[in-house]
Amino acid sequence: MFQRDMPLRTSSESGGDAGVRSSAGVDTRWLCWVVLVVTAFLGSQEVRAGVGDGRLPDGAYRCEAYLMGLFVDLGTITIKGNVYSGPAYGGRAMQGYNYQVDANGEISWLGPLGGFTSGGNSVSLTQVTSDGEADASFDIIMRRRDGGATAATCTIWPPNG
Q1: What is the pLDDT of residues 9-57, one digit of tens each?
Q2: Where are the beta strands (DSSP E) in 55-146?
């Protein structure tokens, strides 16, 4: 039973087995251990980009479409922070533009997107399919000038895993 005027015991008074207790009766060694474990756990958590952060992991995303039995290279989109560039063809550098990822994983490109948004083409939807560091990817649904649609998958390359 808890008593307010109960004197604090030290380990020497109790034969060395009991920890030092606060006036509330809490073993301070136990409290210190809990704080250390929680601190170690939080400190070990890797900070990475993800849909919840509104961005994708940094890297080069190789985009391909499957057309008439063949995989067709549609270029590489480079992501760094909240900026994308590309798609680039043959490694040539492109101007960077901002992008946004909403809570549902839908990407809004805030600038042009190479062949996806030129020549009468437009992007209908871009959806994140994985935001893991090793296998990040997204799908782009492009509406072609003729009214048809083409789907492309862009995957981080080389895989970071």
Answers
A1: 544 444 555 555 555 555 555 444 444 433 343 333 334 456 778 889 9
A2: 59-67, 70-80, 83-88, 96-101, 107-109, 122-130, 137-143
Pairing, β 107-109 against β 122-130: unpaired
Residue-wise pLDDT for 113-127, tens only, equals 988 999 999 999 999
Residues 141 and 69 in one domain: yes
Query: Does one domain contain both 31 and 108?
Result: no
Q: Which residues of 34-48 are buried (b: 16+ CB within 10 A; e: fewer)?
A: eeeeeeeeeeeeeee
Single pTM value for the model: 0.67
Q: Which domain holds residue 60?
A: 51-157
Same-domain pairing of 92 and 112: yes
Q: Are residues 66 and 81 in the same domain?
A: yes
